[in-house]
Design a protein that fits this description.
Number of strands: 3
Order of helices and strands: HHHEEEHH
Radius of gyration: 13 Å
Strand order of the largest sheet: 1-2-3
CATH architecture: Alpha-Beta Barrel
Shape: globular
Structural class: alpha+beta
Helix content: 40-55%
Number of helices: 5
CATH superfamily: PNP-oxidase-like
Length: about 100
């Protein structure tokens, strides 16, 4: 289990500095909900994936993206690996959406 304060810091950093990447995650890896999503906020991260709140049609819905669904890895072994995973997810999301 990851330290709660580390997870909160990662989520805050992603939401404050990389909100565009968080929205890309939804568009690339959760196409079933991405259609009219105007904003996404990362609310949790654990060994298996990320939890997001997605704003769609003026309503918030929760969505989870599992790392294994991205094809990059099944799990994170440590919170230290989160940065690399999130960067890789953003790069892959941009590539998928450009196709």
């Amino acid at each position: 289990m990851f330290d709660k304060s580390d997870v909160q810091a990662i989520c805050a950093h992603m939401n404050d500095d990389h909100s565009d990447a968080v929205l890309l995650y939804v568009k690339a890896f959760a196409p079933q909900v991405a259609g009219r999503v105007s904003q996404a906020t990362m609310v949790n991260l654990d060994e298996a994936g990320i939890d997001l709140v997605c704003r769609r049609d003026q309503r918030d819905t929760n969505h989870r993206i599992l790392f294994r669904e991205t094809g990059l890895a099944d799990k994170l072994s440590s919170v230290a690996g989160a940065r690399g995973m999130l960067v890789a997810m953003a790069k892959l999301a941009r590539k998928k959406l450009a196709e």
